[in-house]
Amino acid sequence: MVGVPFGKSNKETLAVVVSIKEKTAESLKTISFVLDEPYAITEESLQLASYVSDQIFSTFGDVCSACLPSGLHTSCKNFYTRGPEFSKLLLPMGRIPTVMKEKSLTPHQIYDTLSTLLVSGTSQSEEVLCAAWGKKMICWLREKKILTRTACLSWRANVKTQRCIRLGEDSDINRIPKGKNREKYLQLYDYLLQAGNDGATVTNMRDLFQLNLSHLKTLERNGIITLFETVFDRSIPVTIKQDPPGSHPILTPEQSKAYDRLLILLQENKPNASLLFGVTGSGKTNVLLELMDACLKRNQSVIYMVPEIALTSQAQEKFIRRFGETVCVLHSGLSEGERHDAWVSIKDGRKKVVLGTRSAVFAPCQNIGLIIMDEEQDDSYKSDGAFKYHTRTIARFRAAYHNALLVFSSATPDVESFYK
User: Fold this and answer.
1) Range with the lowest mean pLDDT among 117-121, 144-148, 173-177?
2) Strand blocks (E) in 225-307
C-alpha cells in the first residue's frame, strides 16, 4: 500500500502496488509514502483480487478494500510553507497578475501577510489561506513555487493509546513527598510494586487512590513513577473464563465417525471441502469444535462464519470457554475502532480463531487450516452491496491457497453444496 498524489489537485490517495518495473514513464508522479506493516497488502490478497475480479462483476479495488481493515481510509488536509521562489514577491513583476488585481493586492502586500502567517519553518492550513485570498490565488502561488504544499493524512481509525504509570527505574520509597497525600502515595507505591513493569492505567489509579494528574506529576518529578503511553486494544474484551482441559462434551459414536472423516481431510495438507449434514440438535457444533481444536494444535488458524450477527454472540461464549483469548469476533456490528484492532490482532497472529459473519472470510489469518460456513444455505452469505460476491467463492479460493479444509455445515444444505 502506498500514498500517491491523484488527479489535477494532487490529492493524497491510497493505492495498491501490484507489480514493480525497472523503468517508468517520465510523466508519472512520485509515490508520497509507503504504508508499513501491518497494513501492507499480502500476496494472497492480490491473487484473490485478481481471481474474483475475473470471475464476478467486481473491481480489483473492491476486493483489496475488503481485505484491508475498517478505517484504513484517509482524510487529507493540505498545509503550505514558503516555497523556493518566495522572495520573488519582492522583485519587480512588471504587469500585476490578474489574480492579484481581482483581490486588489500587490506582491508586497502578499509578501508581508505571508511573512506573518508563515514564519520561517512553519506552515499554515489551506483553509486559513483560502479564507484570506480564495483558492484561485493559492493555486497561482503554488504554481509559481512561491508556496509549497504538503499533504497531511489522518486515519479515521488510528491506533488508540492510553496513559499508564509504573515505578521509575531508580524509584526510592524514601523520596515520596511528605504531607497529607503521603499515605495515598505509599499505597500507590505498593500497588505498582506488585504490578511490575506492566504498570497500571492512570484512570484506574486516579479512581482507586483518589489522586489527580497533578499528584502523579509530582511523583514523576521525584523519580517515584514513570508516565508512559501504551496501545489500547478496542477489540471486544474477553471476560469469560476458559473451561479447564477435558471438560468439553464427549462425542457420540455417530459424531466421532463424522469427526474422524473430517480429521483425515484436515491432515492431508491439501485443499479439501466437505459437507457436515445433520438435523438440528444432532451435535454438528460439537464435531466442529473438536475439529477446530485439532486445527489449533497444528498451530493453524480457523475462520468460523455464521449468517447473522445475532448468532455470533450466541457462539462467542461457547468458543471462548473452549479456546480462551485466542478467539476474535469480527463483523459489521462492531465500531470502526473495534474492527480495526480486531483486524490487527488477527494479522499479527495474536488471535487464531475468527468468529464472524460473511466479512470474516477476508480476515487476514496466517496459515489457515480450517474454514467453516455454518448454516451455509443462508442467503445472508450473498453480498448485494457495491461489492457483490458469494462467501462460498471467497472461502473456496482461500482454502485452496492455504491447503485448508473448507466445511459446510447445515441441516438443510444448499442443493449445489449437497450434490457437489
Assistant:
1) 117-121
2) 225-232, 272-277, 301-305
Considering the domain architecture, whether residues 109 and 180 belong to the same structural domain is answered as: no
Domain boundary among 68, 91, 113: 68
Structural domain total, the chain = 4
Using the structure block, give the residue that is written with the C-alpha cell 499505597: 187
Write the secondary structure of 36-64 as one string of H (helix), E (strand) and C (coil): CCCCCCCHHHHHHHHHHHHHCCCCHHHHH
Examine residue 296 and state whether it is found in any structural domain, yes or no: yes
Would you say residue 43 lies in a domain?
Answer: yes
Question: Quick one: pLDDT at residue 155?
Answer: 55
Report d(CA 414, CA 417) in Å as an integer: 5
Domain of 38 in residue numbering reads as 2-68
Structural domain contains residue 241: no
Query: What's the CA gap between 205 and 162, in Å, rounded?
Result: 13
Q: Put residue 226 in one of left, alpha, beta given phi > 0 → left and psi -120 to 50 → alpha.
A: beta
| Tens digits of residue pLDDT in 340-357 | 888 988 998 999 999 999
What is d(CA 168, CA 175) in angstroms, rounded to the nearest whole number? Answer: 12
pLDDT per position as a tens digit, 213-258:
888 888 888 888 888 888 777 665 556 677 777 677 889 999 999 9
CA angle 28–37–390, rounded 5-degree value: 85
What is the value of pTM for the model shown? Answer: 0.72
Q: 272-277 and 405-410: which strand pairing?
A: parallel
**The domain boundary residue, chosen from 49, 68, 87:** 68
Strands 301-305 and 272-277, by their bridges, are unpaired
Do residues 281 and 391 share a domain? yes
Rounding to the nearest 10 degrees, give the CA dihedral for residues 67, 323, 164, 192. Answer: -160
On whether residue 332 sits in a domain, the answer given is yes
Question: Torsions phi, psi of 114, nearest 5?
Answer: -65, -35
CATH of the domain at 197: 1.10.10.10
